[in-house]
Design goal:
Rossmann fold; about 40% helix; disordered C terminus
Length: about 160
């Protein structure tokens, strides 16, 4: 297995992820991806887009700048790419219900408005949003890209 990591992913953000890959003998390479952040070699139709927190996800889904994010979502759908969003937020956010109770540090978004936006994203575009802690991101990326969890499987929405 070889995982491609988008070159726009910041070095400090991927350190734990590539450490997991190295520890488990997973080859990886940094390349420019047109969509998302992680893709398995030979499987261009399944891509993981990593978000570092609910705050980043809220910005992508609710801010005035959201058109750029939705353009990427539509491009993926038009090209037959199953995009999966993996949000690293920590142990307090593992399910959709946890998102509803989230209170942002910055901005006016509420947990409820973010949960509604996630629901619209999943229903309207077929893009699942999954949650994990930063310590398990590498493992979750491998699970998703290995398709160990199939579409519609409720385990996809559970965290670690």
């Amino acid at each position: 297995m070889k995982v491609y990591i988008d070159t726009r992913e910041k070095e400090h953000a991927i350190n734990g992820i590539v450490a997991y890959f190295d520890k488990h003998g997973i080859e990886w390479e940094r390349v420019k991806l047109d969509t998302g952040d992680y893709m398995m070699e030979g499987e261009p139709n399944l891509i993981v887009d990593r978000k570092q927190s609910l705050q980043e996800l809220a910005h992508n889904l609710l801010s005035l700048d959201r058109a750029r994010f939705y353009k990427e979502i539509r491009r993926a759908k038009l090209n037959g790419i199953q995009l999966v969003i993996l949000c690293e937020h920590g142990p307090d956010v593992r399910t959709f219900e946890d998102v509803k109770n989230w209170k942002p540090k910055y901005g006016k978004a509420s947990g409820r408005s973010l949960a509604d936006a996630i629901f619209r994203l999943e229903v309207g575009y077929g893009v699942p949003v999954l949650f994990c802690s930063k310590r398990s991101t590498g493992k979750r990326i491998v699970e998703i890209l290995s398709q160990e969890e199939k579409d519609g499987n409720q385990d996809l929405v559970r965290g670690d």
